[in-house]
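Exercise: predict the fold of this chain.
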Amino acid sequence: MKDLFCVKQGQCVLLRNRMLDSFGIFDPAREDISAYLNRLGQFFEMKDIVEPVVAQGADAAAQAAPVVATARYNRLRRAWLIRVIGANAYRLLLDTCSPEAPEVKSYEDLTLILELHYAPQRNKNSQRGTFADRKQQSGESISDFALALRNLAKYCEFGALLDSMLQSQFINGIRDLRIKSSMGLPTLQHWWKTHLNTSEICRRFSLPKFTG
């Protein structure tokens, strides 16, 4: 019985370790590269891959140890990135780094290559046009529509006008006239100002009959 318990316990530990070592590949159709790298950074935290810190006033011997630890920290980040990024993104790294191998580049160099390829500089005027044309689509919930507007606005460089532009496009782009007529424009404006993430509006109008 004890042996059976040990086997099951070992299987649980093995499964837990596999889960801790798992991280999905990068899929540009489903996620921004910046979001992927941010999540990867949190994965590093979970794996205790953290940048060493040198204490102020430390002697020469104490300062030498973090140098070695920092080199290991950088190697681990690079190794994990290459391991989890996926075949397509790794092929991009191979082609871009050639004739060198990605394994000899720094983590910062590799992530810069990925960001330049998957998140190129966007023209703000073009993005503003896309934002202005965005309306709630058929079958799209209020919450998804609000989220889509916020995602588009990231590249529009609205600055201090951001919330005003979001509020205006959100109100104008709602498909279901029953929402506008039941609340009225002033009420929608007030709710937007009170709940900048539209959480209250979403809770009230995310029912299927209000999805457009």
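Check your answer against the key: Residues 124-210 form one domain.
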